[in-house]
């Protein structure tokens, strides 16, 4: 037994010694390999060659002249990485270079064996604090190389054949704290996108590319993605399918279709777009304080075709707040002209109140120092045909409406060709001059309508001649739209009604009280109504005051005539009136009314002596 344990212990001891020696040799080998990677191999890699190759690769891929300051730094653990400091990209004439981009550092993985052969292959780029400058010149060209440079880069990369270059690894492109500076000489505008961070996953030029980036635009954090099965085609100016999305608080959209990034870019596919508030979106785009009230949401789902000349939306589904429409829209742009919008939209129900308040507010928002924006009318042209089963503005509702909107050179107009309001036919025109800065004009005609709902929608109360008839308005103002008030309107109002009644007006009681010769409140004679066969009123509006030029209400055997002024918004009315019996030239009752409508005080006037 003792001999057995002795033999076993010897075997275990030899095995332990063997394992210990194996581990030791492995450790020694690891140290040698580490030393080889860290100290020996770099001595076989030409720093100048790697630097030159990297400059050539970056120049080829970007289409700009890459320049690296200082020597590259190598790291070989856990995998070979090359780091470059102070990298710049220039374009234009070499004698007068134009800065296109720069980066504090660019790191990239590389193939060790290829580097030893003097032809390094780079992949997995890491950009730290890059700044990209993109400029559109007055002639419409860009400061970066022409479209199609990507195809040239693939064909010529590192002196390889096109088939070899197309399989060259790219890997992931990581961007840390990048900046994009956009300058448009055509529109004399500049934009800056900062804090760009994210990655572009692109294994080789011929494989699928996925990019996901976040950034700050005018103080808002945005997130964008793009995916493309054939990115080489897309970037080299040929058509390829791709999907893109953009998400932020003011605006989000997604696109799925095909297109190219040539000098004449093109895209066609399905577009979905949403904005919580048109006013907030315009404020964000212009980088001005957001409005306090955020109304006027918009949602679009459409089949879109976009080219260098414009954009067309077919099979369009449009939502504005709670208003839904279908139709076709087109937007054309030209560097020499303002963008033009035309098309046809059919609404089930269109509520103009939040929409107009969001885009063209009549008064500045509280706690803001800026005036409302109406200069948008100078920057676009519009030719739209609209139809709606119902159009709502405030308390007024127009059904079965057809209208046209025209905007040209700062002048805007809405022409109502047809519509039904208060069971009558509505037509008219609303026009703005000089983008609203020089005021505008309203012309409306309502024929064969029930005028009682009209008075109710305007909030009018008290004794009013209501029947079926005609109402026409021709008003104008020279006040800027942003400062417009009712006191600034002037023009003419015509009112003609037949077979109606003056509600809240007891004519016999009114005559009885007037015969007493004492002042009384008109509320004492409101328990009844005065039936009339015709009512004809012509009034002029000036500085917030309505002047009655003609006001004759003809009833059964009696005619009530009025003249004087009524306040349009506030103040006291001043009216003289007379009641005549048929066949008599001399009024039987004369009176003067003053005070606040709808309860003025009536003062009887002496009767006019009868004429022989």
Structure commentary:
The protein is an alpha+beta fold and 612 residues long. Helix content is 19%, strand content 50%. The protein contains eleven helices and 32 strands. The protein has a 32-stranded mixed sheet that branches.
Give the topology, please:
Layout: H1 2-44, H2 47-62, E1 65-68, E2 73-75, E3 81-91, E4 98-110, H3 112-116, E5 122-128, E6 131-136, H4 149-156, H5 162-166, E7 171-184, E8 189-202, E9 209-217, E10 220-228, H6 231-235, E11 240-247, E12 252-260, E13 266-275, H7 278-286, E14 298-306, E15 310-320, E16 323-334, E17 337-347, E18 350-351, H8 352-359, H9 376-379, E19 381-393, E20 396-408, E21 411-421, E22 424-432, E23 440-450, H10 451-457, E24 464-477, E25 490-503, H11 507-515, E26 520-521, E27 529-542, E28 545-555, E29 558-567, E30 573-581, E31 589-595, E32 601-605
Parallel strand pairs: 5-7, 6-7, 17-19, 18-19
Antiparallel strand pairs: 1-3, 2-3, 3-4, 4-5, 4-6, 7-8, 8-9, 9-10, 10-11, 11-12, 12-13, 13-14, 14-15, 15-16, 16-17, 19-20, 20-21, 21-22, 22-23, 23-24, 24-25, 25-27, 26-32, 27-28, 28-29, 29-30, 30-31, 31-32
């Amino acid at each position: 037994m003792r001999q057995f344990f002795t033999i076993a212990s010897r075997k275990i001891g030899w095995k332990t010694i063997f394992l210990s020696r194996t581990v030791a040799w492995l450790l020694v080998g690891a140290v040698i390999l580490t030393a080889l990677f860290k100290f020996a191999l770099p001595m076989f890699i030409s720093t100048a060659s790697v630097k030159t190759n990297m400059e050539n690769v970056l120049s080829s891929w970007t289409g700009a002249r890459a320049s690296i300051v200082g020597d590259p730094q190598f790291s070989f653990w856990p995998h070979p990485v090359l780091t470059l400091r102070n990298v710049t990209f220039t374009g234009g004439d070499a004698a007068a270079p134009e800065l296109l981009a720069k980066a504090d550092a660019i790191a990239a993985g590389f193939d060790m064996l290829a580097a030893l052969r003097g032809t390094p292959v780079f992949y997995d780029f890491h950009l730290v604090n890059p700044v990209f400058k993109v400029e559109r010149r007055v002639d419409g060209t860009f400061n970066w190389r022409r479209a199609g440079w990507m195809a040239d880069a693939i064909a010529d990369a590192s002196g390889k054949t096109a088939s070899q270059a197309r399989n060259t690894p790219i890997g992931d492109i990581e961007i840390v704290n990048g900046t994009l500076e956009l300058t448009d000489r055509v529109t004399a505008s500049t934009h800056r996108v900062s804090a760009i961070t994210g990655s572009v996953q692109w294994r080789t030029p011929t494989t699928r590319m996925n990019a996901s980036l976040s950034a700050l635009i005018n103080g808002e954090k945005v997130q964008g993605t793009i995916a493309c099965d054939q990115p080489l085609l897309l970037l080299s100016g040929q058509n390829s399918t791709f999907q893109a999305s953009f998400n932020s608080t003011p605006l989000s959209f997604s696109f799925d279709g095909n297109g190219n990034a040539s000098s004449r870019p093109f895209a066609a596919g399905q577009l979905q777009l949403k904005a919580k508030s048109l006013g907030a979106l315009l404020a964000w785009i212009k980088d001005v304080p957001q409005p306090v009230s955020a109304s006027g949401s918009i949602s679009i789902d459409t089949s879109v075709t976009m080219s260098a000349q414009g954009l067309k939306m077919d099979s369009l589904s449009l939502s504005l707040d709670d208003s839904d429409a279908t139709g076709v829209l087109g937007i054309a742009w030209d560097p020499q002209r303002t963008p033009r919008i035309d098309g046809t939209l059919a609404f089930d129900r269109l509520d103009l109140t939040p929409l107009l308040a969001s885009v063209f507010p009549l008064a500045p928002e509280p706690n803001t120092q800026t005036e409302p924006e109406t200069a948008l009318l100078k920057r676009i042209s519009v030719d739209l045909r609209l139809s709606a089963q119902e159009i709502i503005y405030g308390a007024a509702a127009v059904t079965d409406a057809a209208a046209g909107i025209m905007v040209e050179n700062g002048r805007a107009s809405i022409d109502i060709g047809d519509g039904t309001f208060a069971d009558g036919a509505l037509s008219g025109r609303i026009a703005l001059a000089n983008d609203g800065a020089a005021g505008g004009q309203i012309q409306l005609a309502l024929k064969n309508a029930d005028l009682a709902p009209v008075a109710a929608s305007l909030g009018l109360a008290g004794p009013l001649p209501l029947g079926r008839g005609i109402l026409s308005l021709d008003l104008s103002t020279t006040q800027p739209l942003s400062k417009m008030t009712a006191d600034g309107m002037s023009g003419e109002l015509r009112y003609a009604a037949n077979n109606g009644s003056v509600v809240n007006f007891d004519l016999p009681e009114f005559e009885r009280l007037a015969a007493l010769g004492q002042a009384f409140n008109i509320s004492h004679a409101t328990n009844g109504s005065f039936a009339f066969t015709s009512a004809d009123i012509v009034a002029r509006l000036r500085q917030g005051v309505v002047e009655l030029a003609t006001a004759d209400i003809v009833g059964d055997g009696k005619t009530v005539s009025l003249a004087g002024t009524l306040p349009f918004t506030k103040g006291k009315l001043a009216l003289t009136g007379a009641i005549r019996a048929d066949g008599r030239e001399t009024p039987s009752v004369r009176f003067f009314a003053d005070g606040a409508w709808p309860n003025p005080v009536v003062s009887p006037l002496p009767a006019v002596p009868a004429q022989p």
